[in-house]
Amino acid sequence: MSTRFLRIEDLPSESRQRLAATRVWAANQAPYMATALLALTPVVVDQSGEHPDRRHDLSAFPVDERWHVYVDPEDLAQTDVETLGFWLLHQATHLLRHHASRHPEENRGGLPPPLSGRSPAQMRWNLAADAEIDDDLRAGAMVIPDCAITPASIGLPDDWLAEQYYDVLATRPDYPGNSADCGSGCDGCQRPWNCSRPGLGALDSRLLGRDVARRIREHQRRRGDVPTGWQRWADDLLEPTVDWRRALASAVRRGVADTAGRVDFTYRRPSRRATVVPEVIFPSLRQPLAHVAVVIDTSGSMSDQMLAQALGEVRGVLRSVGVARHNLRVVCCDAGAYGAQHVLDAHDVRLLGGGGTDMGAGLAAVGNLRPRPELVVVLSDGHTPWPPGPPSGTRVVVGLMDPVGSVPDWATSVPIGPVGAATGW
Amino acid sequence: MSADTIDEALAVAVRARVPVVLWGSPGTGKTSVVRALGESLGWPVEVVIGSIREPADFAGLPVVSDGAVEMAPPAWARRLFEAGEGLLFLDELTTAPPAVQAAMLRVVLERVVGDLALPRDVRVVAAANPPGEAADGWELAPPLANRLVHLDWPVDAKSVAAGIAFGFPAPVVTMAREPTPAQDAAARAAVAAFLQVRPTLVLQVPTSSASASKGWPSPRSWKAVSVLMAACDAAAAADNARAALVIGAVGEGPGLEFLSWLANADLPDPEAVLADPASFELPDRSDRAFAALTAVAAVAVSKRDVESWAAAWRVVAKAADGAPDVAALVARTLAGARPSGAELPAEVLALVPLLRAAGLMRREVP
What is the CATH number of the domain that holds A357? Predict the structure, then answer.
């Protein structure tokens, strides 16, 4: 069966006007989405000659990854402006949030899905993606149609990501109902009605996404009524958050490299190249090993789980850059410092303390250690007084566990986010 | 980014003599592609692995001759010098210790090894493993990162499967012509014009070392962008390859800013449109048409005079035939900013049915 496409000019004039009016209406409800709505190019799929049982269900006005929206003229004639506007915004959101490329890999391989329908996993992803979208579409006079999936209609909380809904739905074989098919723009799998027209490329759609994100920011500043899911999306797109694990690892690694890596030339040992030119004495390279101290804030305001995870990261990095165990000291500190320990296993360190906070005491204790450490890693929430300068001869990296905590400007600070924060955009 | 895009971007950068670094996990075929590239061009390829070298291998070995110390280049540099052209492939860039990375700076940018300046036609390509993946990696120091165009090496399950079954295809590299002086000038003008409107993007020294190890904007990397843009024009490169190169040179944020500015630079100039509304041609894509009309409306509104406002209405009326929804959206902005003493023009009547269908106009227009 080949799909028949019509030109948009072949539609009756009231249908064309309804399409245009819908875009105006939707762009008026969510002005920041205007460019995305206009970028959706309608492709008219004529199924009037088909037997009703063999027609594709285009009632959700499905999209493909190149920003084509597939329209059945009969559906168009029966849908009012508000419902059609909802679906256009809904489908543009699938594309802006890259649901096709976020679609879990496990469903991609293997046999192609049956042409007549979708695999259960595809449908589950469609449900999950719909749930992520629809709680953010309550803007202006927008009415969410009864057939649309919201987190409430599948009994889950708002503001999750599609991946989270997808995983939870897997544990509930009896999840209610099925949403209409949102097309390959939602799951990246081909549909029989997809056309081969060029459409928007990957670069254009990235630029479009940034444009929408900028409009969301602008709208939020002037009117302040952007749904939270959209705000998070825009912030993440315009200022991507660096994974704190990577930032912390990089700060610690560089700290060790800067002290240990003060690679210097010495004439104590002959260079291995001295034999090449016997009359010249080459210096060889020496690399002093770094001593590292870790100061752990054990005051009452710190959460054990975050501390364990941050400790695990620090330990992993120190091990990979070759800081030996006897070059490593751990100091627990609340209002006063406790004795230095030589271990850094999250479950081996005895976390002492739990009262008030004064990191000054911990840093002073580090300054008295012999041999003196070159690098100090402090894991703290920052709600503490700091000394006016670092212990002499040391570099300080602070893993900051609370974004509103303070860090002195002589230390490198790495904000450590909530444990397991998922950013799947 | 697909493998084809990166292959094309690599070929363009090599052609344009801009040093490139390929970021990818160990064992994903970076070295073999560079070797194939050298073979297909008939150039010698010298592979130098930084982690087993000393600074002296890049800064030259001191040799006394006639009472003066010369910095003698190693044999690989001598071979490249004699060949006159070729590829210098610096493998495992991130596993080189910081002191060696510092010594590589001059090699990467100026192709100077010891006292020997390599010929202009020796191209530098580097490869590196992301420090998070290699067990003993260092982040690239910002000065070295800024001298390179960063390309992410893609791994695509399908092409690996095909490669194992039928053999990996050698990348097809076609060496395009040198850019013409006109292409060169156009590329420079585009970058210069962009930096004039976005002066804050001229220099953004990275603050965290994790972001420092990728491309970041500086006068040097913007210069590289202009060279690469001209080379893309000469090679008629695909848009995706151009985007990969621009983003690789100056980083993702500034790179995308530049690309979207370029895309919008094709739109008609709002001042010219207002001066002569009859000449306005509506862009094909609705979102581009919207961008063009919004710009025209914004300029007309900011002028606060009746003539510009009326001219903007003529532009909107012209757009209403092809794209009534775009026209209606812009018409609302215009109507909301009517200068005192101006009459609502007759053109607005054509849009009334549409606005009413969209539920945005309840009252009857007199």
Answer: 3.40.50
Number of neighbouring beta carbons within 10 Å of residue B207? 9
Asked if residues A76 and A136 have their Cβ atoms less than 8 Å apart, the reply is no
% of chain A at pLDDT higher than 70: 79
Question: A44 in helix, strand or coil?
Answer: strand
Measure in Å the smallest separation between the Cα of B121 and chain A Cα atoms: 31
List the single residue in A18, A251, A285 with the smallest CB-CB distance to B209: A251
Q: Would A397 be classed as within a structural domain?
A: yes
Task: Flag whether residue A34 sits within 8 Å of chain B, measured between CB atoms.
Answer: yes
d(CA B19, CA B127) in angstroms, rounded, equals 11
CA distance A137 to A229: 9
Pair (A221, A323) in one structural domain: no
pLDDT tens per residue, range A66-124 = 999 999 988 888 888 888 999 999 999 999 999 988 888 655 554 455 555 677 788 88
| Closest-CA distance of chain B to residue A25, Å | 5
B319: left (phi over 0), alpha (psi -120 to 50) or beta: alpha
pLDDT band of residue A413 (cuts 50, 70, 90) is confident
Token pair belonging to A321: 């850059």
Window 268-327 of A: residues touching B by CB (8 A cutoff) are: 273, 276-277, 279-280, 282, 285, 320-322
Domain count, chain A: 2
Instruction: Give the gap in angstroms from C-alpha B132 to the nearest C-alpha of chain A.
Output: 7
* Residues A167 and A260 both lie in one domain: no
CA A16/CA A379 separation, integer angstroms: 62
**A residues 173-202 lying closer than 8 A (beta carbon) to B:** 201-202
**Statement to judge: residues A165 and A67 lie in one domain:** yes
Residue B222 to residue B224: CA distance in whole angstroms:
5
Measured between beta carbons, the chain A residues lying within 8 angstroms of B132 are: 246, 249
Q: Are A134 and A149 in contact (CB under 8 A)?
A: yes
Taking Cα atoms as reference points, which of A102, A227, A111 lies closest to residue A165?
A102
> Quick check: A202 and B291 CB within 8 A?
no
With an 8 Å Cβ cutoff, are B289 and A22 in contact?
no
Alpha helices in B42-156 (DSSP H): 56-59, 75-83, 98-110, 142-146
Q: Do A36 and B355 touch (CB under 8 A)?
A: no
pTM (2 d.p.): 0.74
In the block, which residue shows the tokens 């087993």?
B52
- Using a CB-CB cut-off of 8 Å, the residues of chain A touching B360 are 24-25, 28
- Based on the fold, state whether residues A40 and A54 are members of the same structural domain: yes
Higher pLDDT, B100 or A141: B100
Q: Cβ contacts (< 8 Å) between B290 and chain A: which residues?
A: 34-35, 38
Interface test with B, best of A11, A24, A41, A208 (most B CBs within 10 A): A24
Distance of CA B70 to the CA centre of its chain: 40
Q: Which helix (H) or strand (E) holds B335?
A: helix B324-336
- What digits encode the pLDDT tens for the residues B258-286? 998 888 787 888 888 888 888 888 888 88
**Nearest CB to B131 within list A208, A250, A280:** A250
Domain membership of residue A106 (yes or no) is yes
Residue-level pLDDT at B3: 75
Query: Chain A closest CA to B79's CA: distance in Å?
Result: 20
DSSP state, A397?
E
- Mean pLDDT (whole number) for B124-138: 72
How many other β-carbons are positioned within 10 Å of the β-carbon of residue B241? 25
| A212 lies in the same domain as A256 | no
Q: How many CB atoms lie within 10 A of CB A274?
A: 15
Residues of A within 8 A of B61 (CB-CB) are 273, 276-277
